Amino acid sequence: MVNLTYAAQLLPLLLLSPTSTKSSANKNSVVLANGFSATHLNLRPSFLPRGGSLDTKKSVLSSSNSAVEADIGPALEVISQNNWDLLSDRGKAALSRLILYDMSNGNDGQKHVYGDWPEAGVEDEEKRMLAEQIADLDGSYPGGLPAYLSKAKTLLKESADGTNPFEEFEASVPEGESLSFEEPNANPHTGMTFTEAEQAGLTGIGDTVFVLVAGGLGERLGYSGIKLSLETNLCTNKCYLEVYAKYIQAMQRMAHLKTGKDHIRIPLVIMTSGDTDPLTRQLLKDNNNFGFDEGQVIIVKQDKVCALKDGNAGLSMKSKWEIETKPHGHGDVHHLLYREGLVDKWYNEGKKHVIFLQDTNALVINSVLPTLGVSIAKGFHMNSICIPRLAGEAAGAIARLEHKTDPEKSLVINVEYNQLDPLLSSQGDCKGDVADPSTGYSPYPGNANNIVIEMGAYARTLNGEDQGVVIEFVNPKYRDETRTEFKKPTRLECMMQDIPKLFQKEMGSEANIGFTMFDRWFTFSPAKNSLEAGVEDVGKGGTAPGTMSSAESDKYIQNQRKLKFAGVDINVTEEKDLVPIAGIPVTPGPRVILCPGFAITQKEVVEKIEGGKVTDRSTLVLEGEGLKVKNLDLDGALVIRTGHDCDVTVDGLVVRNKGYDLSEVPEGSDVPEEVAIRGYTMNKNEAMEIIITEPGKYHIGADGEVKRLE
Questions:
Q1: CB 453 within 8 A of CB 395
Q2: 467 and 345 Cβ atoms separated by less than 8 Å
């Protein structure tokens, strides 16, 4: 059983005010950047931001030279003077603190890192490299390595002991909104229609900022590159980053047209890691920033943290001279935005909301505007995009946690599935994580992990004591029931959805945190699993394999539903209609792509599409803000792209051609990774393509001839 133990998650220690936290530290105690105190450490660690700037090395030196000078004796008890003299000042500073940390705790938990060095003259360069790595790791974490290791020991002990982080809380369903694209009536419990929410969102589009969390490679998908470079579909071959870019640019264009202010720019921040940073920059360079202006895309890079080999928080070594590191999690994004001064800058520029997106869920762009509208209408400081959740499903849920004795410590937050059932089993009817009989779903909305945050509250929270450093947790996989040895090294992790803990700390009961729930088909189909893992899941009865092929299929299906809603005669693929290709059930068609440049709102879809029919074997791609399609008769493939200021009406167009179809890749074939992860290729046999870029007014009739009217 997985046991997620949070860094005093929701416990009184972390919910103390900054004043009370500081007052609890004695003269032998260091109050760390996140409110923890490392007691009985005679240390003077540098308080540096995680992922420190270019001045990090200077800061380490200036803050710790005195420590090295004063405490060099203990270090020289285990490292010879000749070896010590090989190291740089920053290497000495960090290594000295690590050794002192060990000695102050009365153990040699890290002696395997610095002990038993060969005499000077043997592997000297490797010694220097290890000391520099220790300095880097020490300087990039608030409070340095002693803080990281001290916290890790506490969390690992709580994990081994099975500590219940929710002992002081009771769960209830929080305030939120439930919206359906296809339902014209308002939800009786929350009061907004989809159209109302979307139109409210349009009032704030020019004052938004997007943040894309993209620190991971596609290894879990069976792809060695960055996930942002993967093609969302084979009809347009547009990658995830391009889809997000074109959506943001479509919002920006709409803001220009609505306000007459052509200077409006919607920034995009991409959080990368050491693994993804160079490839992300190259992807942008190779594609001319996907249409963004110079400086409109900002990249912030997160650092990795030390891997831990055992319950005593011993550092895991990749080799004798290199500490193993692992990703720290997307929770770093908040501190990185603080560190770079971006949130204060945006707030001063009048930006109102920050929208956080994950890297491989293309459907989420459908829900951005209505979620923004709900945030504006209800004054939410944080609003999580959610989906209906099956009881017992392995997905986190949004819950309101009521503190049993202090209402100021209550908060709305994501609760992981393996913690939700025990929590609900200890309260009320003690039935646990069960379905609501009236809906068949859990009453607690499933967290899709995309959020909208109000800028003022965000700036206030990030400028608080923690500076955006969210609470961490450990998730070790134990070798046996003794819970002392790990199957593989673990590390401290953090998640961006845990920011409510900081909202609660800085704003108390004033923090207004909610959710907006949509149908799964409309907003959630991430690509996260390999083809093999997806096939295995389907074999066990799963209906959401999470592969590239299922994500592509779901994109077509949600556009089928949009066309059906607009009145087109089109079959919408149901679960019973799916056909297996390479072992994954996918839609047989039609394959429909409505690009962001064509429509980003329900109102646009309804106004730009009128009547017509599309056969199951067809492929349709529409792009262009001034494009209207009436009475289309499609049996084959049709692609229409129009530029800005092109007013194009297609009326009665009849298309008959061979179209596109899929070919399954034979098992064992030697094909590129991007093909192997889908298990099929697309044959683009024949299509009608209409491309219009010259501004003007045009008409296209039944024969497909483009006629310029003016």
A1: no
A2: no
C-alpha 354/C-alpha 248 separation (Å) is 13
Cα-to-chain-centroid distance, residue 324: 24
Beta carbons within 10 angstroms of residue 18's beta carbon: 14
Residue 510 structure tokens: 């004033």
Structure tokens at 314: 């011993």
Quick one: average pLDDT of 211-224? 91
User: Which class for 638: exposed (0-12), middle (13-18), buried (19 or more C-beta within 10 A)?
Assistant: buried
What are the C-alpha distances in Å from 497 to residues 71, 183, 339, 677?
A: 41, 29, 19, 29
The 3-state DSSP class for residue 567 equals coil
Q: How far apart are CA 470 and CA 453, in angstroms?
A: 15
Give pLDDT, residue 410.
Answer: 86
Burial class (CB in 10 A: 0-12, 13-18, 19+), 419: buried
Non-local (6+) Cβ contacts of 569 within 8 A are 611, 612, 613, 614
CA angle 59, 60, 66 (to 5 degrees): 110
**pLDDT digit string (tens) for 174-183?**
888 999 999 8
Please name the helix (run of DSSP H) or strand (run of DSSP E) that holds residue 502, with its range, or none.
helix 500-507
Residue 132 CB neighbour total at 10 angstroms: 17
pTM value is 0.85
379, 455, 480, 500 from 375: Cα distances, Å: 5, 11, 46, 15
Asked if residue 207 lies in contact with residue 351, where contact means CB atoms within 8 angstroms, the answer is yes
Counts of helices then strands in the chain (DSSP H, E): 22, 37
User: What are 134-192's pLDDT values in tens digits?
Assistant: 999 999 888 899 999 999 999 999 888 877 778 889 999 888 899 999 988 877 766 78
Q: Describe the crossing of helices 124-139 and 89-104 by its angle, rounded to 10 degrees.
A: 70
> Which of 194, 238, 257 minimizes the C-alpha distance to 626?
257
* Residue 272: CB atoms within 10 Å: 23
Q: pLDDT averaged over the chain?
A: 87
Assigned token pair, 405? 């004795």
Query: Contacts by 74-77 with C-beta closer than 8 Å and gap 24+?
Result: 74/99, 74/100, 74/103, 75/99, 75/100
- Alpha-carbon distance of 94 to 378, in angstroms, equals 48
Residue 647's identity, in one-letter code, is: D
Label residues 597-607 b or e (16+ Cβ within 10 Å = b): bbbbbbebbee
Partnered with residue 686 across adjacent β-strands are 659
C-alpha–C-alpha distance, residues 656 and 419, integer Å: 55
pLDDT band at 363 (very low <50, low <70, confident <90, very high): very high
What DSSP string runs through 529-559? S-HHHHHHHHHTT-S----HHHHHHHHHHHH
Q: Among residues 596, 523, 581, 589, which one has the least CA distance to residue 560?
A: 589
169-172 vs 397-403, strand pairing mode: antiparallel
pLDDT of res. 71: 59
Q: Which residue has the higher pLDDT, 582 or 15?
A: 582
Sorted by sequence, the CB contacts under 8 Å of residue 213 that are 6+ apart come out as 271, 330, 333, 356, 357, 358, 359, 496
Q: What is the DSSP string of 126-176?
A: HHHHHHHHHHHHHHTSTTHHHHHHHHHHHHHHHHHHT--TTTTEEEEPPPE
